[in-house]
Structures are given as C-alpha cells and as structure tokens.
Amino acid sequence: MTPEHRDVPVLIVGGSLVGLTTALLLRSHGIDALAVERHAGTAIHPRAGHFHLRTLEIVRAVGLEEKVRKRAVELYDPNGGINNVESLAGTEISHFIQNLNEGVEQFSPTVRCFIDQDAIEPIIRERALELGAEIRNRTELVSFEQDADGVTATIRDLESGGESTVRAQYMVAADGNRSPVRNRLGIEMRGHGYLSNSITIYFRADCAPLLEGRNQGVTYVTNPVLRGFFRLNRSGGSGFLVVNLIGDIARPEIVAQYPDAPWANVAEVVTPARAEELLRAAIGVPDFPVEVVDVATWRAQADSAERYRDGRVFLAGDAAHTVPPNGGYGGNTGIGDAWNLAWKLAAVLKGEAGPALLDTYDAERRPIGELIVEQAYTRYVTRVAPYLGSEGVQPIVDDFSMELGDRVHSSAVIDEPGDDGSVHEHPSEAGGRPGSRGPHVWLERDGRRISMLDLYGRGWVLLATNDEWTAPAGVERHVVPADVADAYGLGASGASLVRPDGIVAWRARERVGEDVGAVHARLLSR
User: Fold this and answer.
1) What is the pLDDT of residue 1?
2) Are 486 and 445 in contact (CB under 8 A)?
3) What is the pLDDT of residues 396-412, one digit of tens each?
C-alpha cells in the first residue's frame, strides 16, 4: 500500500502549549499548519502556572483574554503573591512578590494570572481548531529530511501503526526539552546544565485552614527536610508540591562532605511513602491527612540552544531553551517564540517578505532565550539552591523588564544612532524606541476604550501624527493623538512603523522626507 502523502505550509512537531500556540497564530495569519503530538490530548497535570503580562497581551490579541482570565480566577486568587515559608503551618520567611498585579496598570491593558497548563491548553487548542489548524494526537514524527525547498517528514499514527509522509515548506520543533528534532540536527545546548533531578507531587489535602491570612499564589518551602514550592488551588484542597532538594543544605559542613550533591537527586530516592513524608514536611503537620495522586520526575536544567534555526527547521519553547520553573519563564518564553516566528513565516509564505526575514528569528529570540536562562538560574540559586554559590550568577533583572522590556536587534528593526544593543530595559524607559514593544496607552476609538496594543497583532501599523503620512500597501495607518505621540517619542510631524508582533521597527521623530514604502520593504528583506 502506498503511504499517504500530503503537502502543508508548516509542520509543527509537538502539540502542547507552544505547538498549539504556534498553530493558532499561524492560522490567525491565514497559514495552514499541521501539528503532530504523540500524547492523546492536552496536558493532564497542572504545570507552567504563572503567566506573564506579555503572554496575556498575546492571549488578548487572539481574542482569548476573557476566557483565560475567567478560568484562571476559578482556579486561583488573581492577585496572589509569591512567598517563602518554613512550611504551610510554619513561619513565613520572606516575600518575593507581595501582589502579582501590583503596578501593572501603568504598563499593560491586562494583568498577570495563575492558570495551569492543563487548563489553558484546551482553550488554545479549541481556538486553533476553530481557525482551521489541523492537530493530530497520538501521532509521532518518525524521521525527516530537509532540502533547499522544504522538509519531507514521515509521521506515524500510534493507534494504527500506519505511516504517512508530509511535505512542508517549514517545520517548527516544539517537541520539548529532550527534543528529538534538535538532537537529530546536532544542535548543542549551552548554559549551566543539570541542576537537580526533581519531582512534582500531585496531591489532595485540606490545606485551607493553613492558608488563612496569606496571599496565596506560589509558596516556596525552605526547611531542613526539603526545598521546593507549593501551588495550591483556590480552595486549598488540592495542588502540587515541587521538590528540588532534600536534606539540610543550609549547613556548610553537609555541603562540603558530599561534593556530588545527593540532595539534588530527589527522583532517584523517592517512593510513595517518601513522597508522603516530603509532603507532610512541607505542610508542617505530622500525620496530616494527604492523598498522593501522582509523582512526576523531571530534570531541572538551565540551557539554551546554540542556534534556533537549521535551514527550514526552527526550534521553539523547551526545544530551544530549558529552564527551572523559578520565575515562570518556561511556557511564557515559548509563547513569545511562537509570537515572534508565526508572523514572519506567514509573511514569507505569502510572498510579502523575502526569505531572509526568517533569519531574524534566531537573531532576536536567541539572545532573549539566553537572558531567560540566566535569570531563571539566578532565581533558582537565590530561592532554592544557594549552595551553588554566586559565581556566574547574574544580578536579578526586575519582573517588568523581563516581561515587557525585551529589546530585539536584527534586520527587521532599524536601530537609532547611539542604540546600545541591550537585550532588555524597563518598559517605563522604552518610549517607543525601535526594537522595543510598543507602549500601552489608552485611547478612544469608535466610542470605545482600547489600548494601543489592540491595534497590533494582525499586520503592520503606521502610527502617524498627521495626515501627511501615507501608509504603503499592506500597512494600516492610524493618526494618533498627542499623548500617544509623546509615549512613542514622536514629534509634531513624526511616525513609527510597528510590526505585527507589536515591536516598533522604525521611528522618524519628525518628517524629513522618509519613504515609508522603502523602509517597510527593507524591514521585510525585500
């Protein structure tokens, strides 16, 4: 029997959070995509629970903000904090964040939220299917070869065992931290490497009385038995406990005695009985009634791929960067990858941009991925594993800068003279600088209040201070009021070009005869 063969513009390997988001975003730009996922459905356990402001802005751009926030509020306190305790019943040691959304209103039209991966993935999947994406579960990538014109892949239906071939112009590998695609391409990971052989204990227990008076969000636990953190649902009746380290690593003599760090190898020593012991030690009440539902083992790492592109294959999500969960960077960064890549693939596939535009994905996202790895490592060391020492640990960059302050540099941005090439800055300092996310400003349009960010996400936008500016074909023009012009650093006759991903690509503070059409073509590598 001749194997089935089909053609598709983009093949996505992986149908979890990042793969589903990539499929959704490609379809939002009118590009057909096939995502293959070996698991039967979406995530079955809560993971990736802290979603950042930029991620919620992306969710807002695809029309899912209300649905996601409604589900999030059902599960967690929307303004929960992040603190450190001896145990749930014990003394509070410190606060990392008092209120998840303190001060966000001046920078964003949305808010951060806690929502687990098993809750958000079905929402994204449903929307991707509505838009026409094809998602095949219980299907795995068997092999692939690429040439100058595309990628030929063999996929297998895990139920029937049948194989078929797919010819795609491009392939996105969103296949996780062990990424078979990345390994097949010979792309190395670089960074701090292995940190701990950790576990996640999923459980049920009535912890509500222990949470009274606490601003519940993420609760780190530091005591002589373990180091890790809790995520408990709003009722306090179920959740999970991550255990990164066991034993009293606060004692220097213990650390010196065991250079191979056995305390970081939790997964090798855990048993059902030991999991209950660890859970009760974190709760802080002997013989506390608990039900362990499952124990997942995983390796905490802090690494970034040496390159995010190989020919017609792109790495995204954990395939490109693997981080410990501290700071919540994993899923958020993967969604940022998809947001950056999808519009570029769409522009090239539609013939609106030259193929060189796709080179900017690696140029823009890899420096950010490397920053994320270092910042997650810093938070892991300071919050969980101080025994690793301060050598090679970056100073902490504040959360607003990490979430909204990305700076990108590539041929898809025209830097201004004197630009220092930095990868991040505080959003209060960006001021519409090329390479930064366009600032949020409220304005009235057609009798309703919208954010400037609501103008982005579909195509290119020309922000003009007067009617003298003419938008080139394919660009939507908006004449903006004075407060918006000021926020974007524009003078009385200035203008900015904003990319489909909301990044300011070019700015003329005043009009001095610029040909916007030529600038736009240059930015698209035409």
Assistant:
1) 42
2) no
3) 999 999 999 999 999 99
CB 427 within 8 A of CB 406: no
CA–CA distance, 359 with 366 (Å, rounded to integer): 11
Count Cβ atoms below 10 Å from residue 321 Cβ, excluding itself. 31
Q: What is the dihedral of CA 232, 236, 237, 239, to 10 degrees?
A: 0
Q: How many whole angstroms separate alpha carbon 487 and alpha carbon 435? A: 15
Per-residue model confidence (pLDDT) at position 255: 59
Q: How far is CA 171 from the centre of its chain?
A: 19
Tokens 């926020």 correspond to what residue? 487
The answer, yes or no, to whether residue 287 has pLDDT greater than 80, is yes
At residue 513, does pLDDT exceed 90? no
Q: d(Cα 166, Cα 55) in Å, to the nearest integer?
A: 31
Pairing type for strands 504-508 and 495-498 reads antiparallel
Q: Using an 8 Å Cβ cutoff, are 438 and 500 in contact?
A: no
The domain limits of the chain are: 4-78+111-190+304-399, 405-523
Q: What is the pTM of this model?
A: 0.94
Q: Are 216 and 243 in contact (CB under 8 A)?
A: no
> How distant is the alpha carbon of residue 465 from its chain centre?
34
pLDDT in tens, 70-114: 998 888 887 888 889 999 999 989 888 888 888 999 999 999 988
H/E segment holding residue 517? helix 516-523
Decide yes or no: CATH 3.50.50.60 for domain 4-78+111-190+304-399.
yes
In 191-328, alpha helices (H)? 208-211, 252-257, 266-269, 272-283
Is domain 405-523 classified as CATH 3.40.30.120?
yes
User: Hey, what long-range contacts does 320-323 have (CB within 8 A, 24 or more apart)?
Assistant: 320/182, 320/365, 320/366, 320/369, 321/369, 321/370, 321/372, 321/373, 322/177, 322/189, 322/373, 323/372, 323/373, 323/376, 323/377
- Provide the angle, in degrees to the nearest 10, between the axes of the packed helices 65-75 and 53-61: 130
What are the beta bridge partners of residue 136?
A: 36
Residue 419 three-state SS? coil
State the residue for tokens 């960074």.
191
Q: Express the helix, strand and coil content of the chain in percent, nearest 5 each.
A: 30, 30, 40
Backbone angles phi, psi at 33, to 5 degrees: -145, 145
* Distance separating alpha carbons of residues 75 and 20, to the nearest angstrom: 22
Return the pLDDT at 211.
87
Do 79 and 88 meet the contact criterion of CB atoms below 8 Å apart? no
**Between 256 and 243, residue with greater pLDDT:** 243
φ and ψ at residue 155, rounded to 5 degrees: -120, 155
